[in-house]
UniProtKB/TrEMBL annotation:
Residues 22-258 form the AB hydrolase-1 domain. Gene3D superfamilies: alpha/beta hydrolase. It comes from the Bacteria. Pfam families: Abhydrolase_1 (PF00561). InterPro entries: AB_hydrolase (IPR050471), AB_hydrolase_1 (IPR000073), AB_hydrolase_fold (IPR029058). GO terms for molecular function: catalytic activity. This is Pimeloyl-ACP methyl ester carboxylesterase.
Length: 278
């Protein structure tokens, strides 16, 4: 597995498959490059170069004691793109990866990125504010963080079924739920806590409103982790050049339960230059 060094000297792991136009996959909170198992073969077979990052504190990357703020995390994405000299990139980002990617685009612009896909992203914001009056109140954020700190394993197991919206008939093998939890538990505990705190408090309405590239927003109507009325629908309303797809029976783990539809929508978006509305 190849590695590269970031500005603060942290060694991060990545995977690089295929040739052609590059797609950079940015994983969700506490997940690793392994989460993209249902996307990677399809996109490589379709002729794309697929680059997958293990963020700092996750999986095979180093676990520094600092750098879990959005400025550093977006700088890590920039360092990867520069290390491989990637251009005309399609960013595909899930959950907290969308928060990182939005911050990257706001800080570094779109010189290297030609389009973005926000998949169940926790954007534009989760917390209650003037811009998001229906968002999570501070007491709800505090309760979530207290529960995560008290017993991360229990917190993850309690949310396993809802993550894939199995109550709506989505068939997911128990082994898949176990593997998702295993990935999360392989993340440095302090990294998981710090990133969830960032995730629940970040706000990107301004950054998204300024995006000058095509964006595809894919979200599940049954998403318990990033409720669609707080995230996906608001993101689509904020971004000027946006294509929006909502899957009625999908949860946060739609990259598994709705992989065929997600992959097809992303491929269509890339092939049409990000302009397809139908």
């Amino acid at each position: 597995m190849p590695f590269f060094s970031t500005a603060d000297g942290t060694r991060l792991a990545y995977e690089d498959y295929g040739t052609g136009s590059p797609i950079v996959f940015v994983a969700g909170w506490s997940l690793s490059a392994d989460m993209w198992e249902y996307q990677l073969p399809r996109f490589v077979d379709e002729g794309y170069r697929c680059v997958l990052l293990d963020r700092r504190g996750h999986a095979r990357s180093e676990r520094p004691s600092t750098g879990y703020d959005l400025d550093t995390l977006s700088a890590d994405i920039a360092a990867l793109l520069e290390h491989l000299d990637l251009r005309e990139v399609t960013l595909v980002a899930h959950s907290f990866g969308g928060v990182e990617s939005a911050h990257y685009l706001g800080a570094y612009g779109t010189e290297r990125v030609s389009r973005a896909v926000f998949l169940a992203a926790c954007l534009p914001s989760m917390r209650r504010s003037e811009a998001n009056p229906d968002g999570l109140p501070q007491e709800a954020i505090d309760a979530t963080m207290a529960s995560l700190r008290a017993d991360r394993t229990r917190w993850l197991y309690n949310g396993g079924q809802a993550y894939f919206a199995t109550q709506l008939g989505n068939t997911v093998m128990p082994a898949m739920i176990e593997d998702t939890i295993r990935q999360c538990m392989n993340t440095a505990p302090m990294a998981a806590i710090w990133l969830q705190q960032v995730n629940l408090n970040a706000a990107h309405e301004d950054d998204l409103a300024k995006l000058d590239i095509p964006v595809l927003v894919l979200h599940g109507a049954a998403d318990a982790s990033a409720p669609v009325h707080l995230t996906g629908r608001r993101t689509a309303a904020v971004i000027p050049n946006c294509v929006y797809r909502e899957y009625p029976r999908a949860g946060h783990g739609l990259y598994v339960t709705h992989a065929d539809a997600v992959n097809a929508d992303i491929l269509n978006f890339i092939r049409t230059g990000g302009t397809a509305k139908g």
